[in-house]
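RECORD TYPE: inverse folding
INPUT: structure tokens
STRUCTURE:
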């Protein structure tokens, strides 16, 4: 994460230009109608990425999520599930095989994102100003969750000790505490506050590399 992650030693010929947020697209009518339900206190979006398969999740984890979704009947919940687990879900829960994640997160009624903690997810949460509950599964996701916690707009739960009581407790705390929304709004502004936009910066550094080809000194890390 450009400018936001923990201090990291890198070569001086590496330039980060990732501080860019695309424009969200308009949602399909059925999702707009679901999200904008006047009786809803807000929308919770649950998605664990394309590489995490709910079909492989322990039954206890699936049961915990279903319990929590049923309990949060005052909210609208969009649950992205590759396992087609639609049985007995109440009307305030919409289960989809795929969803336009960034566009949903950018809707002003979306108030919480529950995610595995991929880098794309943490960036989209910043761009959309959406607090996140991370449940890291593998790879760098625990590191990403630590970055979000340091910046004050996320919490995380351990997948190995997750149960319905812990999940519901943390979700309710995040929904009732304005500090997560305040923090992600502040980080969003910092993330995009740059001397030039990312495309202009990428063009500059590309042209500079071509101009100085074979004539620059760099200091590279060992390894």
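DESIGNED SEQUENCE:
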């Amino acid at each position: 994460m450009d400018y936001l992650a923990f201090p990291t030693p890198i070569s001086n010929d590496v330039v980060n230009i990732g501080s860019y947020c695309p424009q969200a697209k308009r949602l399909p009518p059925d999702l707009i109608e679901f999200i904008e339900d006047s009786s809803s206190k807000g929308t919770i979006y649950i998605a664990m990425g394309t590489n995490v398969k709910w079909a492989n999740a322990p039954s206890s984890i699936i049961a915990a999520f279903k319990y929590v979704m049923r309990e949060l009947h005052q909210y609208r919940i969009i649950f992205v599930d590759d396992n087609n687990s639609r049985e007995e879900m109440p009307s305030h829960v919409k289960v989809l095989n795929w969803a336009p994640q960034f566009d949903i997160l950018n809707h002003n009624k979306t108030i919480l994102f529950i995610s595995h903690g991929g880098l794309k997810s943490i960036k989209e949460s910043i761009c959309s100003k959406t607090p996140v509950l991370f449940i890291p599964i593998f790879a760098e996701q625990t590191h990403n969750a630590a970055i979000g916690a340091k910046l004050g707009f996320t919490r995380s739960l351990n997948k190995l000790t997750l149960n319905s009581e812990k999940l519901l407790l943390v979700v309710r705390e995040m929904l009732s505490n304005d500090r997560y929304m305040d923090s992600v709004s502040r980080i969003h502004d910092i993330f995009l506050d740059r001397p030039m936009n990312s495309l202009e910066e990428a063009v500059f550094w590309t042209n500079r590399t071509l101009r100085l080809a074979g004539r620059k000194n760099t200091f590279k890390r060992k390894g």
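NOTES: Strands lie at 43-46, 76-80, 93-96, 110-115, 132-134, 154-156.
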